[in-house]
Design goal:
Structural class: alpha+beta
Number of strands: 5
Helix content: 10-25%
Number of domains: 1
Radius of gyration: 16 Å
Strand order of the largest sheet: 3-1-2-5-4
Order of helices and strands: EHHEHEHEEH
Shape: globular
Strand content: 15-25%
Distance between the termini: 38 Å
Largest sheet: 5 strands, antiparallel
């Protein structure tokens, strides 16, 4: 049986990938692109195996192919462009139908905490610009990934997944919105 790995990565604040975008800022709106298989049930919007390193034997930290749950940075994207990206992603597999996106702020994701653990950051958001088209997808300078803390037990991971799923909403918040800040710790 392969030895499980945990996310090993740099701090979130320095830009990790080349290109015009820097590190993902707290006030940036990010979008989780959806298709009919990820819209309902809500639990399919973020899968444990994507956001935590479940089953991985090594972690990819290379720009454009980083492991984690894919999101798009929306500062430079119109609502129509987000929908086009959802459509393009859905079309990568025959028969899938685009369902748009759910949105949050990166700071809202970073501020999520489990009950009784006010100082323990659950999720990190990393820039992950895709500068070449390959098996991972098309060029996408706005690509980023969300990673969860693998030190969490499976029940804690389930609680963390419920938090992040409830944070993402179908309307794009403003960059200065308090909408995505957790209400309680």
């Amino acid at each position: 049986m392969p030895t499980p790995v945990v996310w090993v990565g740099p701090a979130e604040n320095p830009a990790l990938c080349p290109g015009p975008l820097a590190a993902v800022r707290d006030n940036e709106v990010i979008a989780r692109l959806l298709h009919e298989n990820t819209l309902e049930p809500a639990s399919s919007r973020f899968m444990r195996k994507e956001i935590f390193s479940v089953g991985l034997t090594s972690i990819d930290n290379q720009c454009g192919t980083k492991d984690g749950a894919s999101v798009d940075r929306c500062d430079n994207l119109s609502d129509d462009e987000v929908m086009r990206r959802s459509q393009a992603q859905a079309e990568r597999r025959p028969g899938r139908k685009a369902e748009g996106a759910y949105f949050a702020t990166a700071g809202g994701v970073r501020q999520l905490r489990l009950p009784g653990q006010p100082d323990a950051q659950i999720f990190r958001v990393y820039d992950d610009a895709r500068l070449v088209e390959d098996e991972f997808g098309p060029i996408n300078r706005e690509h980023a990934v969300v990673r969860g803390d693998d030190a969490l037990s499976r029940p804690q991971q389930s609680g963390a997944l419920a938090l992040i799923i409830s944070l993402f909403i179908p309307e794009r918040p403003s960059q200065n919105s308090q909408l995505n800040l957790p209400l309680a710790r």
